Amino acid sequence: MGRIIVEVMPKPEILDPQGKAVGSALPRLGITSFTAVRQGKCFHLSVDGPVTDELLKQARKAAEEVLSNPIIEDVVRVEAIDEADARYAGGVQ
Questions:
Q1: What CA–CA distance (Å, rounded) separates 72 from 11?
Q2: CB within 8 A of 28, min separation 6: which ones?
Q3: In principle, which of 13, 26, 70, 75 could form an S-S bond with 63, CB 3.0–4.6 Å?
Q4: Could you tell me the pTM of the whole model?
């Protein structure tokens, strides 16, 4: 089974209250290394068989037309991932 990961982030000019809340909570937990946090969305798309260029093209179309709001979000990543990456990134088993 192949997997495709799609990452969507708010456009830089869009306020990110969730990212800001996480960013302000980190120092209270003693985590002070990070200067900013932006929160986005991550989708794992599973396919039967290997990921082909055509499937990546379809995933990109889905990302741009369904998985993101192009007015306020950018699609920042559409790529095949291997099973080890999928398990590590919390992908569906």
A1: 6
A2: none
A3: 75
A4: 0.81
